[in-house]
């Protein structure tokens, strides 16, 4: 999967829709009340479209991803803008990131993770007491969202109630679980398809 993201990294930030949804997600995160604002991990950060927008909210922002090309672009942006509190990390999983953190956020990344239960368990371990995990992702869809990527082997979105149960099983308390955004994109035959996103915020 990282090969696909490596191949599209250069043009990633040229898509206004990707920037818009990252901004909408950042606005949602800024409205949440966290116990600590010491550090946040943006997991599956890509070029940092979400995480960079959190640099004024947290003392330290850690952009974590498994695509070197995405992280190179993120690092270039950080260097150019002289953001001293934003850091990049090449990781395969959450367990590769050292330390414990105030929050973990992830935008459109969870559906690429095969074992969601393991992800929740890892997030729980990486969070400080009363730390928050915030997931923005697709509701269950018919598989058309990733038709442009023949190598996609993740989830076709999620049933939010089932995801909440997995979070509870890992020890989390549900803080927020609701729709907040819609992605609109054309199908191959020119029909506009709408894919709603949910925001799930859970506390350790």
Automatic annotation (TrEMBL):
Please, which domain of life does this record's source organism belong to?
Bacteria
What does the entry give for GO biological process?
methylation
Per UniProt, which keywords does this protein have?
Methyltransferase, Transferase
Pfam families given in the database record: Methyltransf_23 (PF13489)
InterPro entries, from UniProt?
SAM-dependent_MTases_sf
Whether Plastid counts among this entry's keywords is: no
Q: Does the keyword Methyltransferase apply?
A: yes
**Annotated GO MF terms:** methyltransferase activity
Family matches, as PANTHER family: PUTATIVE (AFU_ORTHOLOGUE AFUA_2G14390)-RELATED (PTHR43861:SF3), TRANS-ACONITATE 2-METHYLTRANSFERASE-RELATED (PTHR43861)
Q: What is this protein called?
A: Class I SAM-dependent methyltransferase
Species this protein is from: Vibrio tritonius
């Amino acid at each position: 999967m990282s090969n696909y993201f490596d191949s599209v990294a250069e043009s990633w930030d040229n898509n206004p829709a990707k920037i818009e949804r990252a901004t909408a997600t950042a606005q949602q995160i800024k409205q949440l009340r966290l116990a600590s604002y010491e550090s946040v991990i943006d997991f599956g950060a890509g070029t940092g479209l979400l995480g960079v927008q959190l640099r004024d909210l947290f003392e330290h922002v850690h952009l974590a991803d498994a695509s070197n090309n995405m992280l190179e672009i993120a690092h270039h942006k950080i260097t150019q803008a002289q953001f001293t509190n934003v850091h990049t990390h090449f990781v395969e999983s959450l367990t590769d990131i050292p330390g414990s953190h105030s929050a973990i956020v992830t935008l459109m990344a969870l559906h690429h993770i095969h074992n969601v239960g393991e992800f929740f368990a890892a997030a729980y371990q990486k969070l400080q007491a009363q730390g928050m995990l915030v997931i923005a992702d697709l509701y269950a869809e018919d598989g058309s969202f990733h038709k442009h990527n023949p190598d996609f082997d993740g989830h076709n979105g999620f049933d939010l109630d089932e995801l909440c149960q997995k979070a509870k099983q890992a020890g989390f308390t549900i803080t927020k679980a609701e729709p907040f955004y819609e992605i609109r994109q054309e199908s191959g035959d020119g029909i506009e398809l709408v894919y709603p996103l949910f925001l799930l915020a859970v506390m350790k």
